[in-house]
Amino acid sequence: MQNAPELAIVGGGIVGLICALGLIDRGINVRVYEQAGGLRENGAGLAFTRNAVECLKLVSPLASEALKSVQTPTGDTTQPNDHLTWVDGFNQHDQNDPMFEPALFKLFVGANGFEGCHRAHLLEALWKRLPQGTVVFGKKLQTIHDDLHSDRVLLHFVDGSIAQANAVIGCDGIKSRTRALLLGPDHPASKPQYTHKLSYRALIPMEKAIAALGAQKALDQCMHIGPNRHLLHFPVADQKLLNVVAFNSDCDPWVDENGRLIAPATRQEVVDAFKDWNKPVRTITEMFPEVGEKWAVFDSYEHPVPFYSKGRVCLAGDSAHAAAPHHGAGAGAGVEDVLCLITAIDKALMLATPKTALTNAFSIYDGMRYERTQWLVESSHEVCEMYELDHPLTKGDMGKCKDEIEARSHKIWYFDYEEMLSQTLSAVDKLLGQ
Ligand code: FAD
């Protein structure tokens, strides 16, 4: 749209690209500045709750179509109700059938309650649906100048180039530079903290997984819990791959001189970590690739980000609320953020000049999203302790564990996004309407 305001999005990850599609749908010009030289995602799976899928439809039909083109229901598609199953992955349950693991509890999530995809496939599908040139690669943000006397905000990149926009949305992930600029480099929340958990991921060909585990287990979405560790798996890529994430505890600090959160890892490390666990878990770890990678899990639990917007700069997705992945809901929360943010921006631009509209829309978005997403950071940290039988509320009591996990999961899955939208629109009206 000519003369329409232009927004700069820092970071071309999942949340940044979804946000770009949503803004373009509303006639707003967008540029995404991504530090990498091209699309960059790791070879791991990602699952969206039904709620996040519904929010995505409202953000942008194109973004929703992109997800549809790569997603697979993560549970058994022959069942009318999809469920997540928690099993005791530590103890051996039947000497005659070492692969037997009785369910500790199940949570029903409705028909195709979770949709899984390969992260790299989703990122590419989103990118393909953006107008050519929307994403500018090789642009690592260094500084932002939000001079209140000017109509434009300036973005300075590490390569010395400068861009300008009416406002900036920082979707630059867990180590967000935008967050550090908003809070100041010495603020404890400007950097995420190591949770002393390492995650090892694998995508195992489904034929191999079925041969080793049986179809019922391989096609199910299953969380194996036990002391100090846990392991989750679900099918992705049209049920052709089994996505596995194994979490191990680590007493040491995470040291990487280049600030990376990923390091090389071997299958043997995962096998050794779970060597005392039961046969099904050991069988899964033995299918990991001989050489792979491990991810250090960081979050902002210890030092919560105090606010998500200042002037014409705001944060969305992991840059605002870096949650450990134990609820599997970080990206979903990012989609909710985008829906709230673009709704506020769209409405505000109808009522005020871009500068006033964007500043107010950002502040309303901050107020609407803060509590829920900070709760997600806290709860993601706490459910990990529950899976590992170490949370003071639940310890090894499976009844209490189920109640807690169910209540927390339902808060995520059954979020009333329509209410969020209605409150967002009222807040914009109240602030900027006649
Ligand atoms: P990112 O995906 O991290 O993207 C940030 C982008 O910004 C990157 O492309 C980066 O290169 C770029 N960038 C960074 N700094 C700069 C800079 N200075 N200048 C320019 N560009 C920059 N969530 C779910 O909803 N469901 C799941 O099943 C799930 N499983 C998970 C499993 C694991 C093991 C982990 C670790 C996380 C999981 N999550 C899940 C969480 C989810 O991965 C994140 O919430 C999501 O990827 C956040 O997206 P984002 O776009 O905010 O950040």
Q: Would you mind describing this structure in some detail?
A:
With 434 residues, the chain is an alpha+beta fold. Helix content is 38%, strand content 26%. The chain is built from 13 helices and 20 strands. It has helices at residues 14-25, 50-59, 61-70, 119-128, 177-183, 206-213, 215-218, 267-273, 279-286, 330-351, 354-387, 398-413, 417-432, and strands at residues 6-10, 29-34, 45-49, 72-73, 82-88, 103-110, 114-118, 135-137, 141-145, 153-157, 162-165, 167-170, 193-205, 221-226, 229-236, 241-249, 262-266, 291-299, 309-310, 313-315. The strands form 4 sheets. Strands 6-5-14-15-16-13-18-17 form an 8-stranded mixed beta sheet, with helices on both faces. Helix 10 (330-351) runs parallel beside helix 13 (417-432). The radius of gyration is 22 Å and the shape is globular. The model has no long low-confidence stretch (mean pLDDT 92). Residues 10-16, 33-36, 40, 46-48, 139-141, 171-174, 177, 199, 245, 295, 317-318, 325, 328-332, 334 line the site of flavin-adenine dinucleotide. Flavin-adenine dinucleotide (FAD) is lined by residues 10-16, 33-36, 40, 46-48, 139-141, 171-174, 177, 199, 245, 295, 317-318, 325, 328-332, 334.
